[in-house]
Amino acid sequence: MHILEILLLLWFIGMPIYTAVTFEKNKQMLIDGRINRTTAYQQTIAFLWVPTLLLAAVAWVTELNTMTLGLVFTGSTTEIGVFALLVILTIYGGVNYLSIKKDAKIRAKYREVFSPMRWILPQTKSELKWFTIGVSSSAGICEELLFRGYLMWLLTPYIGIIGAMVVSSALFGLNHIYQGWSGVLNTSLLGLVFAFVYWLTGSLWTVIVLHLLIDVLAGFQAYLALQDDEDYPQAKNSNSVSTTK
Questions:
Q1: CB-based contacts of 102: which residues, under 8 Å, 6+ apart?
Q2: Residue 227: which pLDDT band, with cuts at 50, 70 and 90?
Q3: Number of domain units in the chain
Q4: Cα dist. 181→21, 63, 132, 178, 190 in Å?
Q5: In this structure, is residue 90 part of a structural domain?
Q6: Which residues form the domain of 97?
Q7: Per the domain annotation, does 221 fall within a domain?
Q8: What phi, psi does 102 have (nearest 5°)?
Q9: What are the backbone dihedrals phi and psi of residue 121, each rounded to the nearest 5 degrees, phi first?
Q10: d(CA 213, CA 221)
Q11: Higher-confidence residue: 231 or 170?
Q12: For 144-193, how does the pLDDT look when each residue is reduced to its tens digit (9 = 90+)?
């Protein structure tokens, strides 16, 4: 095994540990306004792209390539069907955005959902741009390349496709431990959905787009819902920290 592959595997193991150890401190710094949320998003983007660039280096020195990573368009009926569903999801997102924007009761329902994570969610237009364009796109590309494209490819010969789907999804969930154990469970289950879609279509592009759309939609929902959160004055403060996505 090449030294670059070892470094990448250490990232998969070490990143959840680092997040678990640091996120409470980072959370409090964000709530107290000692670190700007925009800075937190920039740090998150860096945390996502550093291992992805390491993965690119691994591909350069090993047999790993775009095809083994799933960066192909199969042209299958399944793939076309999934992309059609993604178009529908995009339309739904637009309709959902308008309904939240217009209806205070709907905003209140979404605010209840997002309140536990409001310390890291976008609450100004600038933060929303960084969250949707920067964090969401980086997560969609980087996390799918790392957890579905690479890790599933690496593990499948040893534990089979189902085992690879489960293990990669569990590690994906642990990387979101800053959301609490319920967040770990939810993102692990979402990771299984991503893994299944990847296995079903044979194309990582479908999962990248799906992941990106879900994160972007959540960002817009949170932004609209938290605007009139009178119980959380920090919501209006653009100087508010960080943890990794």
A1: none
A2: confident
A3: 1
A4: 14, 37, 24, 8, 14
A5: yes
A6: 3-236
A7: yes
A8: -90, -25
A9: -90, 155
A10: 12
A11: 170
A12: 999 999 999 999 999 999 999 999 999 999 999 999 899 999 999 999 99
39-85 confidence digits (pLDDT tens): 999 999 999 999 999 999 999 999 899 999 999 999 999 999 999 99
* CA atoms lying within 13 Å on the CB side of residue 207: 29
In-domain check, residue 243: no
Q: How far apart are CA 58 and CA 4, in angstroms?
A: 6
- Here the tokens at position 14 are 């070490």
pLDDT bin (cut points 50, 70, 90) of residue 230 is: low
51: which 2 tokens? Answer: 């291992």
Q: Give the containing element (helix H, strand E) for 116.
A: none
Task: Identify whether the C-beta of residue 51 lies closer than 8 Å to the C-beta of residue 146.
Answer: yes
* Residue 118 burial (C-beta neighbours within 10 Å; 0-12, 13-18, 19+): buried
Cα–Cα distance for residue pair 72/82, rounded to 1 Å: 14
- Of residues 15, 35, 10, the one with CA closest to residue 25: 35
Q: Is residue 244 part of a domain?
A: no
Residue 127 reports pLDDT greater than 60: yes
